[in-house]
Design brief:
The complex is a heterodimer of chains A (297) and B (373).
Chain A (H helix, E strand, L loop, with lengths): L9 H39 L3 E3 L2 E3 L5 H7 L2 H35 L4 H9 L6 H12 L4 H8 L14 H25 L3 H9 L4 H29 L3 H7 L6 H10 L4 H26 L6
Antiparallel strand pairs in A: 1-2
Helix pairs in contact in A: 2-12, 3-7, 3-9, 5-10, 7-9, 7-10, 8-9, 9-12, 11-12
Chain B lengths: L2 H10 L2 E10 L2 E11 L4 E5 L6 H9 L6 E6 L2 E2 L10 E4 L11 H11 L4 H14 L15 H13 L5 E5 L7 H18 L2 E6 L2 H7 L2 E6 L2 E6 L1 H6 L4 H6 L4 E11 L2 E6 L3 E8 L7 E6 L5 E3 L9 E12 L3 E7 L5 E7 L15 E6 L5 E3 L2
Parallel strand pairs in B: 3-8, 3-9, 6-7, 7-8, 13-20
Antiparallel strand pairs in B: 1-2, 1-4, 4-5, 9-10, 11-12, 11-14, 12-13, 14-20, 15-19, 16-17, 16-19, 17-18
The chains are: A mainly alpha (297), B alpha+beta (373).
The structure holds adenosine-5'-triphosphate (ATP) and magnesium ion.
The site of magnesium ion has 4 residues of chain B, from helix 2.
């Protein structure tokens, strides 16, 4: 008991205040920051998506007109479909290419895996736009690939589908996002305790069984992190398609961008954005259900 | 049976390891280790931390390849077989349960790799869960279990495979005393029930003494002694074993003479003490005399007749433990000795002993051992 007869001993009271102050000081600034610069604009855009909107005009109201305008437009629908197909395809390719790299780095390289990971990251440190323009040089009509193929006599004239096409968008997207697939999976695989692997071997699991029943399930959270980290931003991508995509590589991101910048129709732009967000969230939920990830998290 | 015959027998029927050596850089973690274990035997590897117990176990389990030596199981040389091919299973030092699988799936992991029919798996898993009192735990994940429960799952996950030999690496090391003792009894019961050979690694000498049929004492990668608990306790082959197993008083001195199968050691400032020589004891060599606390008498009077080693001292402390009383006696040299006296009757002479009293401590010469090293 406190000698002063206070209901709470001073030392405890002081500790409580300190804890509280610590909490406020630590959590508040980032929270305010997020609120001001992230959630508030998001909310505003969300509200705007229900306003009456046209070229350079915006009028508070509650209407689903923007959503209807988007969904009833066959061109938009086609672009949306193309976007999902492209991005899903790229995601699948990223997993096919990235998973083995991550596995190799995490479980087969003895000493220099950290260095190799760094090599993988280096390109990311070059400016985003410069990297995309660099691909133009590689993929273009007289680009490195075409020049090499012609020199070798494998083709007579430059391959046209290499640049300004969906193929180009996919190639550049894969290059752009590969590290973000490799690293989370690498971390997950690296974290599998050696003892568990040994226990599995001891209980009769051969190398393939160990992969199938230990590494694969235990790396799913990493794969899921990659998915969140990569799939969702890819859906909104507009720089890559606008630089290397040409008309056939046009993506939903370009539509949104043009609604905000060229068409000045913020309401429609917001509506498309939120539709995209909604579809993505549904997709994420499906992925969690299908892979049974709740159990692992 | 000689060691050679024993090895031959182990090679043909049970498990045998011969001249195992494992080096990690300059460190020799396992240094020329040989022993054999008969089918159905409860064999314990006992030694302090870092003595090479786990490494030896891993070599038998196939998780570590030895630099030299061979492993035989049921007449076959299995030194280089991969772990999944060996009829041997391990219970790991810290369980190593699969975190993403339920208790049922953990236990069923081995049987599934062996391709047992699903019905048999269900029956067997249920039977083994029952054996360790874990009915109803099928759907739980390892993170939802207590230490003792995890330990039991790890145990039956290996047992269900019916290996020829089960390797247990300090399976009770992380548990508190009460659960430990409970599981010790359970382990002995299970071992008798399933009749599988156990190799049980521990650094707890009490555990080894109570559980094992035979014990191998290890230190710095070498096996110092193999024998049944009684032999290890009563006839340790060197100072380390005597010190590591049970409680012991040591007196350091020099051998005066060896005669009639006994050695006389001069302990400077104290006395000359007789004991049974162990190994190459010769006059002039430095030696330790070891005598266990329960083999000594304590009294307020000097012994009447008989041949005894006798020391005099002052009672410094008395610890009553119910079954016995432990006396701490300070000798003139300042050394302390521990003496256990059984609490036979409450008017016995020893009850009159009090603190700071002058007492005699004595024991029969054949109860002390003389080691030279
Ligand atoms: N993979 C390894 N690399 C290098 N040194 C090792 C390795 N494994 C074991 N050692 C060393 O070998 C020695 C024996 O280790 P081991 O694990 O067999 O001891 P232990 O008797 O099981 O000890 P504890 O009772 O602490 O478990 C130790 O000094 C240890 O540091
Ligand atoms: Mg160990």
């Amino acid at each position: 008991m406190s000698t002063l007869g206070l209901p709470i001993p001073y030392s405890r009271w002081r500790r409580t205040v300190q804890q509280y102050a610590g909490l406020v000081l630590n959590v508040f600034p980032p929270f305010i920051y997020l609120l001001l610069f992230f959630y508030a604009p998001m909310a505003l855009l969300f509200v705007m998506s229900f306003w009456k909107s046209g070229y350079m005009e915006l009028e508070p109201a509650f209407t689903l007109e923007n959503y209807r305008a988007f969904l009833s437009n066959p061109t938009y629908r086609r672009i949306m479909w193309n976007t999902f197909v492209t991005v899903t395809g790229v995601m699948a390719l990223l997993v096919v290419v990235g998973y083995p790299i991550a596995y190799f780095l995490a479980r087969m390289v003895r000493r220099y895996d950290a260095l190799l990971i760094y090599l993988l990251i280096i390109p990311v440190e070059i400016n985003y736009l410069i990297r995309i323009y660099a691909w133009k040089i590689v993929l273009g009509r007289s680009g490195i690939i075409n020049a090499a193929l012609m020199y070798l006599g494998l083709i007579d004239e430059p391959l046209r589908f290499l640049l300004y096409s969906r193929t180009a968008v996919m190639i550049v997207l894969i290059h752009e996002w590969l590290p973000y697939v490799v690293i989370p999976v690498y971390v997950a695989l690296k974290g599998v305790p050696q003892e568990i692997v040994e226990a599995a071997r001891d209980l009769g699991a051969g190398r393939w069984d160990v992969f199938r029943y230990i590494y694969l399930p235990l790396s799913l959270p990493g794969l899921f992190a990659s998915f969140i980290l990569v799939y969702i931003p890819m859906l909104g991508e507009f720089a890559i398609p606008s630089i290397v995509g040409g008309p056939s590589g046009y993506m939903l991101g370009n539509v949104i961008e043009s609604q905000f910048l060229a068409a000045g129709n913020w309401g429609l732009g917001s509506a498309i954005g939120f539709l995209l967000l909604f579809i993505t969230l549904v997709l994420v939920a499906i992925v969690i259900k299908v892979t049974g990830l709740e159990e692992l998290m | 049976m000689t060691i050679r015959e024993g090895l031959q027998h182990g090679k043909e029927n049970g498990l045998a390891v011969e001249h195992l050596v494992k080096r990690f850089g300059p460190l020799v973690a396992v240094d020329d280790v040989s022993f054999s274990v008969a089918p159905g035997e409860f064999f314990s590897l006992l030694g302090p931390s870092g003595s090479g117990k786990t490494t030896t176990l891993r070599i038998i389990g196939g998780l570590t390849v030895p630099d030299e030596g061979e492993v035989y199981l049921g007449g076959e040389r299995i030194t280089y077989w991969p772990p999944e091919k060996r009829d041997v299973n391990i219970v790991f030092q810290n369980y190593a349960l699969f975190p993403h699988l339920t208790v049922f799936e953990n236990v069923a992991f081995g049987p599934r790799r062996r391709g047992w029919p699903e019905r048999k798996i269900r029956e067997e898993v249920t039977r083994f869960l029952k054996m360790v009192h874990l009915e109803g735990y099928e759907g739980k994940y390892p993170r939802q279990l207590s230490g003792g429960e995890k330990q039991r799952v790890a145990l039956i996950r290996a047992l269900i495979m019916h290996p020829k030999v089960l390797l247990l690496d300090e399976p009770l090391g992380a548990l508190d005393l009460k659960i430990r003792q409970e599981l010790q009894l359970e382990l002995i019961r299970i071992q008798e029930e399933v009749g599988i050979t156990f190799i049980y690694v521990t650094h707890d000498q009490g555990e080894a003494l109570t559980m094992a049929d035979r014990i191998a004492v290890m230190n710095r990668g070498k096996i110092l002694q193999i024998g049944d608990p009684k032999t290890i306790y009563e006839q340790p082959v060197n100072r380390f074993v005597a010190h590591f197993i049970g409680n012991t008083n040591f007196f350091e001195g020099q051998v005066v003479k060896v005669e009639g199968g006994m050695a006389l050691v001069d302990v400077p400032g104290l006395a000359q003490i007789w004991g049974v020589p162990v190994g190459e004891v010769r006059a002039g060599l430095p030696a330790s005399v070891s005598v266990r606390p329960e083999k000594m008498y304590i009294s307020r009077h000097p012994p009447k007749g008989g041949s005894f080693n006798v020391l005099q001292g002052i009672v410094e402390d008395m610890i009553y433990t119910g079954v016995s009383t432990e006396f701490i006696v300070r000798l003139p040299t300042g050394q302390q000795v521990r003496v256990f006296a059984q609490n036979i009757s409450k008017d016995a002479e020893i009850w009159k002993i009090t603190w700071d009293e002058k007492v005699w401590v004595y024991w029969r010469p054949d109860r002390s051992l003389v080691f030279v090293e």
